[in-house]
């Protein structure tokens, strides 16, 4: 896999679609614009550390996560927590300049812009416009809290607006996030459709987040308006599940869809058959 260059101080990593578009108005952006990210709704953005920590508890190393991505996806551009860490303080400053409505959603939107959830390590693989990232946590409870915070954010901030003040003008983006139905063999799963509308641009993206034990995989790609959404989600889930299977060394397969119920007989047809004249039956038998 090809390794990406280290981001400069002004680069913004792992931004939601709306935040990416607005922050990009004032700085050169080289980032993953996944609509999901991490961080509880009540988390603090000011807790950035000076250096990425070593793996703890059940966390995997960057090398182990990269190997899982290589085995599942093949060639891609790779970055990890060591690459993201030096940008966190600058990223935090940029994010605090944003105005979010409803105001209750600002913490979710800004926390989601962090390259990794608090306390996690991560490795990101980028191929064209698709992205797959592995997050590893110290224990299963921390990973579960991350997924639950994402679901809570999607439910509570279904529609939100992000505004960036550039001094001479303001740029605004409206974002809608919708949870979609997902079949998965992982312990937890979340599928989201994101639509971001900003000046002269509309972006649509599908994202699948799976968790198994202390590890999670997030896969996202632009939505194809001509493709069947359900089929696209099945393929995206399969990609995330393949990586997660390599991470946890256990095959994760989505359950087969439930068969369609048999159609019930038409009551009118039954009544017509039961009300036939007995004389007609006799004449037919003759």
TrEMBL record:
| UniProt superkingdom | Bacteria
- Kindly give the PROSITE patterns that the UniProt entry links to this protein: PROKAR_LIPOPROTEIN (PS51257)
User: In the UniProt record, does the keyword Signal occur?
Assistant: yes
Entry keyword set: Signal
Outline the segment boundaries, as ranges, of region: Disordered.
Answer: 31-61, 250-286
Tell me which positions the record assigns to the signal sequence: 1-23
Per its record, how is this protein called by name?
Answer: Lipoprotein
């Amino acid at each position: 896999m090809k390794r990406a260059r280290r981001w400069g101080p002004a680069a913004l990593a792992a931004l939601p679609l709306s935040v990416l578009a607005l922050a990009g108005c004032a700085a050169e952006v080289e980032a993953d614009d996944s609509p999901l990210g991490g961080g509880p709704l009540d988390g603090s953005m000011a807790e950035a550390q000076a250096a990425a920590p070593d793996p703890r508890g059940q966390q995997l190393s960057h090398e182990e996560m990269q190997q899982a991505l290589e085995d599942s996806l093949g060639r891609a551009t790779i970055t990890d927590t060591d690459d993201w860490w030096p940008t966190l303080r600058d990223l935090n400053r940029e994010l605090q300049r944003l105005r979010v409505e409803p105001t209750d959603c600002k913490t979710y939107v800004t926390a989601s812009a962090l390259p990794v959830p608090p306390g996690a390590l991560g490795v990101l693989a980028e191929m064209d416009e698709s992205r797959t990232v592995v997050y590893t946590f110290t224990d299963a409870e921390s990973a579960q809290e991350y997924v639950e915070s994402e679901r809570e954010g999607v439910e509570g901030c279904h529609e939100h607006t992000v505004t960036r003040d550039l001094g001479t003008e303001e740029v605004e983006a409206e974002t809608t996030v919708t949870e979609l139905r997902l079949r998965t063999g992982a312990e937890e799963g979340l599928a989201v459709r994101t639509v971001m509308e900003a000046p002269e641009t509309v972006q649509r993206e599908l994202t699948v987040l799976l968790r198994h034990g202390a590890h999670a995989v997030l896969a996202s790609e632009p939505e194809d308006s001509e493709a069947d959404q359900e089929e696209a989600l099945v393929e995206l889930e399969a990609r995330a599940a393949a990586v997660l299977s390599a991470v946890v060394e256990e095959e994760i397969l989505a359950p087969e869809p439930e068969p369609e119920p048999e159609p019930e007989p038409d009551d009118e047809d039954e009544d017509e058959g039961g009300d036939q004249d007995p004389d007609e039956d006799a004449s037919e038998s003759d």
